[in-house]
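Handout, tutorial session.
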Amino acid sequence: MASRPAMLLMVAATSLATTPGGGAARAHEIYVSNEKDNTVSVIDSVALEVVRTFKVGKRPRGITFSRDHKQFYVCASDNDAVQVYSTDGDKFLYDLPSGRDPEQFVVSRDGRRLYIANEDDAVSTIVDLQSRAVVRQVDVGVEPEGMAVSPDDTLFVTTSETTNMAHIIDTASMETVANILVDPRPRHAEFTPDGRKLWVSSEIGGTISIIDVASRRLEKKISFSIAGIPTENIQPVGITLTKDGKTAFVALGPAARVAVIDVEKAEVVKYIVTGQRVWHVDLTPEEDLLFTTNGVTNDVTVIDAKSLKAIKSIKVGRYPWGLAVRPAP
């Protein structure tokens, strides 16, 4: 294995590569949590290969960055902790109090709070990132997982897998303001960029529920149909939307597909083949590449987000689960 200085030189060299249009490509880093290996793998977005892998806590799942990208957080579910690392050398800094079995989380838009889903406790834990203290725990449904925060920072959402609800919580009062029934086993929540709608994926229900945020009402549902794939194998989980709010990408689990959705029409326009058991998805800042974690084939699929074609499969650790993009400095 190359030494770290040599590896950094190689990574720097890749940043001089050019895009197909002739412009300089920027090398972002895609951090992938490997649930079975207790590691994080880091992929260079230009070289499209793993440049390093390092140990973290037990059963890492959710992973995300601080708003300034100087730190990143990992849900070490079997350690009952959210671990905090510096992006300078991927150095472990400290554990945050997180409640039992943290699975997913989201950072507030102002960067001051972390909202955490505690799967075993049926609560969402609110942590002040400066004092590193729990501000409050909010009771939600059974097996909370999906987490989202509104663009204006006034609301956060927890989805409960067994209660089959999206719980909308006011960030000022820290009180629940709505409990909205969705289809079975909601796994992920995502606000549209304008904050007007909330998308919730239901793994067993096989649907996306679109909720109007102002009225707190379920507005419509999107279902999926893929030739040759049994309906019960189409299990939507991770969602990401483009910054203009026009396109959504949805990971479909055992269907080994990502659905591309026209947001305005609420219709699927294409299915893209990925590795097996695709969990989560994320875009580069330029929105030219989409990355997926595939939990059974232990790889990441790279998709050209313009042509909507898979272009590479990258082997990572066992059971890749979450992913987050660190923009190039």
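The second record follows below. Compare its token runs with those of the first.
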Amino acid sequence: MKVLVTMRPGSLRDSFIDSQSRALLEENFDVTYNCTDHEYRDDEIGGVLGAGYDILLTGWGTTYLSPYADRFSLLAHTGGSVGDLIDAGSYEKGLKVVSANAIYARSTAEGALSYILSALHQVPALTTNMREPGFWGKDGEYETRGLSGKAVGIIGVGAVARNLIAFLKPFDVKLKLFDDYEIDPGFLKENGAVAASLDEVLSTCDVISVHVSLTEKTYHMIGKRELSLIRDGALFVNTSRGAVIDESALIEVLSKKTFFAFLDVFEFEPLGSDSPLRNLDNVYLTPHKAGPANDLYPFIGREIILDMIRFRNGEPLRYQITREQAERMTRHSAAAR
């Protein structure tokens, strides 16, 4: 089978396809690599695919591929979401799709849990201030809080959220879950959770964690009205997509300093150097690093290549993305308004 690796040369491609993975790939396939200094553009990809490939091995920054979905049989994506790469029509043409979404989800859930615990225990502030000679803090100045027994609200019950819910079990939290889709009653019972409205999650929970894909439907789904419902002292965490929240409204509400936020994603990235978020002392910021952790990149590359081998051999695919899953995944075009 012929494989096209669309990722441009460089450290990122080498991180996902290290020497071990490259050897595995070339032992099993007839491989062509992108040798340009950029990801293939919209006006290039059609001509490139004219050479006839069975599998495309893709990464972040890959252009829209649906118009050419009848020219290859498997899309193997080292990223998570394939929402920007294909649409439902690709599946109608018989295309099969695998991605590292399941791996990304678990790693991002780890990141979300670390942010929640760090914020509640004031780790960023205390670590920063301990660099100052003589700092030891005053009683009550840096009040720390635990996670055990807290009311935790989850907005969006996809793969990341389900991993986070599993990670939260030892903390015996009170879980309230909101999703636009009906949540399986068996899943709720198994996890000691209740389904709740978005308003209820925002207004009653001590910790709120957002895990919503960005689509036309979810763009700015959390605006000023919704943010104003968050209770005093609550912690609001977003590791999903920045544009599911109206960032200007978020800045306005956070400026009142009634609750805290830990933000890993932003409406426009990278975050502007003049963003007011950088100057709010009730906000912790990280540069879209919740997941996947960097040390997972080689593992991701090998796992996706192993699925490519399973595809060649006619075996079940471990990381297959169904049409239904793909339709729920993030599409950055939803923010282009």
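Points raised in discussion: The mean pLDDT is 96.
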